[in-house]
């Protein structure tokens, strides 16, 4: 479970996130939507422990900055950054060691195969295209068997097959009772997988919906109802 | 920790493997080591030459080291910029379940390696150049390498890990150290101006007792004095204070809780550092790690030119929006050198009877030195829009670089006019010199494009610069030899016009060749 209470973050005088509360229960897929500059990335980075903030963030009941919380948490950033001198396989190996992951070699092989990286295992970080880096980043996050996973614009740069695969992986994680939070602009990509949506605007969460409460209503209709924009 | 060790080990092994496959890296490494040895030998010779080769000489060096390097390190740590992390650390390490203090200690491994190398060099210098007894060198190495590193690491951990220290206090410490360094420099300059530069005056300054009483930095100087010069009451007391400080700081660092609050600053620094490396790789002259966000003026103007001419007017509009228009750091640099050399070389230039030749030499030298400067034109080649403009390649080259020629003309004026004025050179020679400087700058730009085409990415930016310098020196060198010969055997007054006409002709020819690069984007990729 992911819980955020009274999260605020200031960059100098600019209040990027103001008193945000949200929670995503176990086995649910939360999506964080909002226009550019709304504060989504700040929330994501705060959860990942990369920012100083005010308020409380808990992962599986543990404060997000503790090692217990981090052990159960995985993060896929919007812009992946690889170690130049580490191969794809070595990135995975590093994650295995850092998280004391129980993933087996066979499972790693399977994972790399799913994202078409099995033949690129010996490629160095600085030899990868942006799309490939994104795939490695996703595989690294999955290989730690997280209880909570955070994906920031995970579909950007991925080819259609990888997007399809990623959606399947996210649904599998849900079945395994993993908490998923996805921040994205691409509404159509998360249309059929979300359980809870949070819409942000100007540093605040301006609305939240549960799928079971809105019936068959379109995701973009709900989004534009809240943000006041028009569906194209 | 095992994950971090794995990370370092694999990165090191892979980098070595890559370097072995790429001979350029190995050649650069060999050259680097050879240059280091040459520099060491040269400095050692200099130390012997000025009778600096004794324990006192080493104490003087260590005093300056303690003041500048130690304080600079403290300043870097107080702004949380002393440890280099990469964007990949933000992605994979800061988010991992690893103690933030361990990450910090591991992140600074380059600092330890650097520190050990410096202390080995100092120990070798102590034995060979400064003639210090081996047991003293051993103690000196231990005190420096161990105590100073422990203190540095403790300060680093205490400052980075402490989330409770207010940001304003940290900025205050940083500013305070900066002011202190400037103040010390002024005191040193004023002292040596008054006393003159000699071993005796240097010793007089170093022996000043107040220096050792100065907390931490002064105390570390006392340790070096105790080991190298022998005990006295002051250096014994100050050395004890230094040891106590090291133990106290180490204890504080061990006890301090760290929740990873520094990740925010470290991640920002990692991005800035990666950006700086990228700019450096592109051949840009980088002055600092942090790139300040540029502010632009509001200009309500539209570009009305068409074809390749639009490139020039777009660049002009961009420059109009900039704070100092076409004036850059290079302009300041040219003006500074113009005024500096005008004053410093005035006597020699005027007494020679040919001050115009001095001016020409300075203009040529500065033009060759400015290799790291990138104008807007180089970015043109990186965008596909340039290649899509329906105009000839030569026109695109001309209009992409036209503003750079104007800038070179302005910078050349800033460089040559002060020297021309103070050295009482006829205006016609000054004008010719400015034009030659402009032509040389244009030549450099176009030769760079040719070097890029010839070498591509095989030898990297350094290789490209080397090839450019070779081409430029060969082509221009021939002209210079011809001009000098005509000057000696026919008429000295002909040197300037011959050089100008020759460099313009060569530049046009090189420009025509370089324009091929503006025809298609494919050539470099």
TrEMBL record, chain A:
Keyword annotations from UniProtKB, A to Z: ATP-binding, Nucleotide-binding, Transport
Domain ABC transporter, residue spans: 2-227
InterPro entries linked: AAA+_ATPase (IPR003593), ABC_transporter-like_ATP-bd (IPR003439), ABC_transporter-like_CS (IPR017871), ABC_Transporter_VariousFunc (IPR051782), P-loop_NTPase (IPR027417)
SUPFAM superfamilies named among the record's database cross-references: P-loop containing nucleoside triphosphate hydrolases
GO molecular function list: ATP binding; ATP hydrolysis activity
Name used for this protein in its record: ABC transporter ATP-binding protein
Source organism of this protein record: Mediterraneibacter hominis
TrEMBL record, chain B:
Xref: InterPro entries: Put_ABC_export
One family name in Pfam for this protein: ABC_export
Keywords of the record: Membrane, Transmembrane, Transmembrane helix
Record-given protein name: ABC exporter domain-containing protein
Superkingdom assignment: Bacteria
Annotated organism of origin: Mediterraneibacter hominis
Chain ranges passing through the membrane: 26-50, 56-77, 109-132, 138-161, 173-192, 212-229, 236-254, 324-345, 357-375, 421-440, 469-489, 495-516
Keyword Transmembrane included in the entry's annotation: yes
Keyword set includes Transmembrane helix: yes
